[in-house]
Design goal:
Elements lengths: L18 H20 L6 H11 L2 H12 L7 H30 L14 H19 L3 H12 L10 H6 L1 H8 L3 H6 L3 H21 L6 H4 L15 H25 L6 H6 L2 H19 L1 H5 L4 H18 L2 H11 L13 H16 L1
Helix pairs in contact: 1-2, 1-3, 1-14, 1-16, 2-10, 3-8, 3-12, 4-5, 4-14, 5-8, 6-8, 10-12, 14-16
Length: 366
């Protein structure tokens, strides 16, 4: 093979999108946008309860789905090219621009900390790291146990926020479990009895969070999964910290599976929108940041209490749906998903790569 020959790839041709997964992405993206809008009102009891409920499982849900869809990652040329174009480039664009906007209004961060994501960029950094380590988790004998141990123990040591490593390691079990799930597992969740129990469970936990979250010390800080256990504002000992993290893992898994059981299986309008959650995730932060810093919207409306919270949630749903439209994806795809043909060598089609591999194997046998 000469230096100019196309690189082989072992990936299969793209498969048709699964309606169930796109439906799941749609509903969890609504929770992401609602949760980020409520961050501005979290000091209010009415918003705090909803915020705590959402944050107990919305990222575990998203991460588990991400692990499932990335379970076949092997690091071939086509997959690496896609990681760079859909994770690395958007991360650099979003993190740099959001930090510049924030510095314009507040003076921070100064200097820019591009490798220490301040907000939205952490998830793209996490997907990048998790995706690259997928072959490792596929090879380990006890991957889930190992990931849980890492999550529990990482809070005991100082881990720099390079590429959001504390959160990456804290949330790791959800990704690894998602990697080791299969379609049959998701189908079992569709059992009517499980769906009824899930609806009751999600409703009950919502009521509990709404009524009692104000009494839970540092609940919102624990749900960020980024501080050391003994660091302010957590201020917990080793045993207490590990116990609290273990409880969050259990709650996150239980509520995630409950939510997954309620996701519709059939194709609908949410399926189409759910296929474009990528743009919604990247763009909604700009809107929230602009409303907060330019117009001080959240501080001005806080005096309206529950009414402001409800309006904020409704507008968050509207914003999320608008950002998942085809027009938005068409406009921003060249920016957030560039082809980068100038950067990469050509990749041989999967069929050609398979033929070349068979030919090489045949020549060795001969």
């Amino acid at each position: 093979m000469s230096a100019l020959d196309p690189l082989p790839t072992m990936t299969q041709p793209p498969k048709e999108r699964v309606a169930y997964l796109d439906n799941a992405r749609y509903w969890v993206m609504l929770l992401v946008v609602i949760g980020h809008s409520l961050t501005q009102y979290v000091a209010m009891d009415s918003a705090r309860g909803v915020y705590v409920w959402i944050y107990t499982f919305h990222m575990p849900f998203f991460i588990l789905i991400s692990g499932y869809t990335a379970r076949r990652y092997m690091g071939d040329a086509r997959q690496v090219r896609r990681i760079v174009s859909t994770l690395v480039v958007p991360y650099l664009i979003v993190e740099t621009s959001l930090q510049l906007i924030t510095r314009h209004y507040t003076g921070e961060p100064d200097p820019l900390r591009i490798l220490s994501p301040q907000w939205l960029g952490w998830f793209m950094a996490a997907l990048f790291v998790w995706r690259l380590t997928t072959p490792i988790w596929r090879a380990l004998k006890y991957p889930i146990t190992t990931s849980i141990a890492i999550s529990l123990l990482v809070g005991l040591i100082e881990v720099p926020n390079v590429l959001a490593l504390p959160k990456i390691l804290g949330f790791l079990p959800f990704y690894v479990v998602g990697m080791h799930m299969n379609r049959q597992t998701f189908e079992k969740l569709a059992d009517v009895r499980i769906r009824i129990a899930s609806a009751v469970l999600l409703t009950a936990t919502f009521v509990i969070c709404y009524l009692y979250s104000a009494q839970w010390d540092n609940a919102t800080e624990w749900l960020l999964w980024k501080q050391r256990y003994d660091e302010d504002p957590l201020g917990a000992g080793a045993l207490e910290g590990i116990t609290q993290r273990a409880e969050l893992l259990v709650i996150g898994f239980v509520l995630t599976f409950a939510a997954l059981s309620l996701v519709p299986r059939k194709r609908s309008w949410t399926t189409r929108l759910g296929g474009r959650t990528f743009y919604c995730y990247l763009l909604h932060g700009y809107v929230i940041l602009f409303l907060k810093e330019q117009f001080d919207v959240f501080a001005r409306t806080e005096k309206y209490g529950v009414g402001a919270v409800i309006v904020s949630m409704v507008l968050a749903v509207v914003l999320a749906n608008l950002l998942m439209t085809q027009l938005v994806s068409k406009v921003f795809r060249p920016i957030f998903e560039p082809r980068l043909t100038w950067l990469f060598r050509d990749v041989a089609p999967p069929q050609k790569a398979a033929a070349e591999a068979a030919e090489r194997e045949s020549s060795r046998s001969a």
